[in-house]
């Protein structure tokens, strides 16, 4: 008779957020596999989102063993492991990251520095976009106030924009009243906040990645029987593929919706596009290399498509 | 552990402790630490309760609280507020309960400028309460309207909580913001009606004092001299938001600057007044923030144990008609509102409620407005209501918590009445978005 | 002992003054950012995170002062109906409980500070700062709170001695 292993899980987003679907994809897969192979031996108990443990505190709660599993985004734990900032700069899919050795190296960093097992990157196949009220013709944001999060602060600065720090809850009014001229956000999700009403342009190309890791407390992970670890890894690898596909599809469906709302696409000229991406990625890597030169260099190599 | 047992333990423990005259914030703290030890897994949970204080307070969205309070204390201590009240008083003439009426009117106006219910309440409390008590108003007629208008504030845009609710529930933000206008106006109308009727029935509660006849010229002069300049402060809040100078949160700071400037212009700004205003602001801010810190953790423990979800889940899964379940949902929010902080309730209830609302095919804007009123009622329901604590903070020491609970009760009833009105006349919530061509 | 309390009160007062100064400073700072952004499209990026941290400092700098001035909210419905002796007894017990709770805050706050120092934990906003630099005010504030609670408990006992 086997004991039931129960993993207490929290997510950085409430159940209603679209990011939660990525987590649900994983748990459904894992549950099916458990039922098929080792019925009753593993249970993932969903505790809740930010209402149960505050989003910025979740990874530290995981380190301390208050919870066993966390689904979050890298931005929320740069405080304890700045190196994970590199994942947003990856131009590989999660599956390719496993093949390139990036996953293994990232896991090593997680295990050694924070005592966490880096189970998967259920990181949506979506990119960030720049959304504007005023048109631009080139990769130059001079004279524009752009609402930023620390994630793309350096990129916006590098492109000449003036970064403005306000919480997402204020963006609607700030846009409406022209306090800011634009903001960055993933390809999907601006309609959740109602910002499409005061957005006129979406700029192509998209840049960076939405990096959402699924983490497990290392001690708990090591205590689990090997067969359950294999099962979770299998579920993780499969979920990574499905999530990328599902969110790719969502991004594709989003564009026509934005056009229907009257938002125009600013498709920068090829040379400007190249410059835009070059600046965004160079600033991103520069920031990371400043914070952790050694690991940063290695990650840059592992996460960049040759 | 069963959800009802967890709730009884946490709620019971809290009630027991706050009755001992231990400050509310510390009573919560005791319950939190004991609760964290047993429900959040021992020492890791205890560390989390301390780190939670850092995360819950260091947020931009709380900035307007000290700013609006400083604005209020400055207007109050410099005498600018009293002047303005006197001017409006001149215009209102010999009207029974005029200060209560004035409070509600000013509440609506300031509510339309401010996105922080707490701040609105603190501002009006500091300006009007001392005058009301001086004029011999009963506690019921003085404390009551000042707390009541707090709930109106949330329904009249702009409001930060509305935006939070809309984003959590996936409701259109713009629509939900303007959908609150009609119910907000109705609610203040009901407050006015109540005040006027009550003054008729119990004239001694709002003594009419003789107002000497004032010539029109003097009224106009007083208005120009004392009331219109206050428009500078209003301009530095709403005008700056409208002109795109500042976001609603930031505008609280420019509004404070405005009150500094005005006090300076009226030659009322001296060291003593600044000191009084700053200490007054510190007193209320520290008190409110301590309560926000501990109530945040308290809500997290309820959420973490699954107790809050258990209770909501239990009530929504009963086999009864949708409208009854909807009413049940709102009642749950009202009950949670008695002992929890607004955002925490939203975070617990919304994920469970929204699938049900979609399943029933209800209009989400309508539901959003209902939720908003119910959530805001929580601010004034005893024993735990932030507005109540704000009022206790700004009131003179002889006002007890029991006085405050008693005074606020009629306004809780009006709020519930307002929920019922919107519940049975959904068009009250949907008419404005409809007119704007949004539906 | 008397000297110690004079010193303690001086510290508590100074902390409250510092909290007030911070309040004025963040008001000015936010107005400054707004002005610079509106007039010159320029943002001093560290100002907003600093105002957020300031809120925490204001609370823990001011809380002991507020406790001493009896400014924290209490619910006195039952308390007011007790006789003087019972009031004193209850106050004494509750102040001890308050003191113990705050000493727990010191302990677990310090544990977290050590965690942060050991792990090099930062706080990442528009600027990145060591978390300890901001967080440290929680254990510091809690130390003063603890002392004040025990001081109030002892002074209640003394009152009892005086009357009997
Ligand atoms: Na409002
Ligand atoms: Na309440």
Description of the molecule:
The complex is a heterotrimer of chains A (306), B (439) and C (164). Chain A is an alpha/beta fold and 306 residues long. Chain A has ten helices and eleven strands. In chain A, helix 1 links the parallel strand 1 and strand 2. In chain A, helix 9 packs antiparallel against helix 10. The longest helix of chain A has 35 residues, at 226-260. With 439 residues, chain B is mainly alpha-helical. Chain B has helices spanning 3-18, 24-39, 43-57, 64-77, 80-92, 98-111, 117-134, 139-155, 160-169, 173-179, 181-201, 216-227, 230-242, 248-265, 271-304, 307-316, 322-339, 342-360, 364-377, 386-394, 401-424, 427-435. In chain B, helix 3 (43-57) crosses helix 15 (271-304) and helix 17 (322-339) runs parallel beside helix 19. Chain B is globular, with a radius of gyration of 22 Å. Chain C is elongated, with a radius of gyration of 20 Å. Chain C has a two-stranded antiparallel ribbon. Chain C is mainly α and 164 residues long. The model of chain C has no long low-confidence stretch (mean pLDDT 92). The chains are: A alpha/beta (306), B mainly alpha (439), C mainly alpha (164). Chains in contact: A-B, A-C, B-C. At the A-B interface, helix 2 and helix 6 of A face helix 3, helix 9, helix 10, helix 14 and helix 15 of B.
Helix count from the secondary structure assignment of chain A: 10
Strand element count of chain A: 11
> What portion of residues of chain C belong to β-strands?
under 5%
Oligomeric composition of the shown chains: heterotrimer
The count of domains of chain C is 1
What string, H for helix and E for strand, traces the elements of chain C in order?
HHHEEHH
Note the total helix count of chain C.
5
Chain-wise SSE layout:
The complex is a heterotrimer of chains A (306), B (439) and C (164).
Chain A: E1 5-11, H1 19-37, E2 42-48, H2 58-64, E3 69-71, H3 94-100, H4 102-114, E4 116-121, E5 128-132, E6 145-147, H5 153-158, E7 162-164, H6 168-176, E8 182-186, E9 201-207, E10 213-217, H7 218-223, H8 226-260, E11 264-267, H9 270-291, H10 293-303
Parallel strand pairs in A: 1-2, 1-3, 6-7, 6-8, 9-11
Antiparallel strand pairs in A: 3-10, 4-10, 5-8, 5-9
Chain B: H1 3-18, H2 24-39, H3 43-57, H4 64-77, H5 80-92, H6 98-111, H7 117-134, H8 139-155, H9 160-169, H10 173-179, H11 181-201, H12 216-227, H13 230-242, H14 248-265, H15 271-304, H16 307-316, H17 322-339, H18 342-360, H19 364-377, H20 386-394, H21 401-424, H22 427-435
Chain C: H1 2-40, H2 47-68, H3 84-119, E1 122-124, E2 128-130, H4 131-135, H5 137-163
Antiparallel strand pairs in C: 1-2
Helix pairs in contact in C: 1-2, 2-5, 3-5
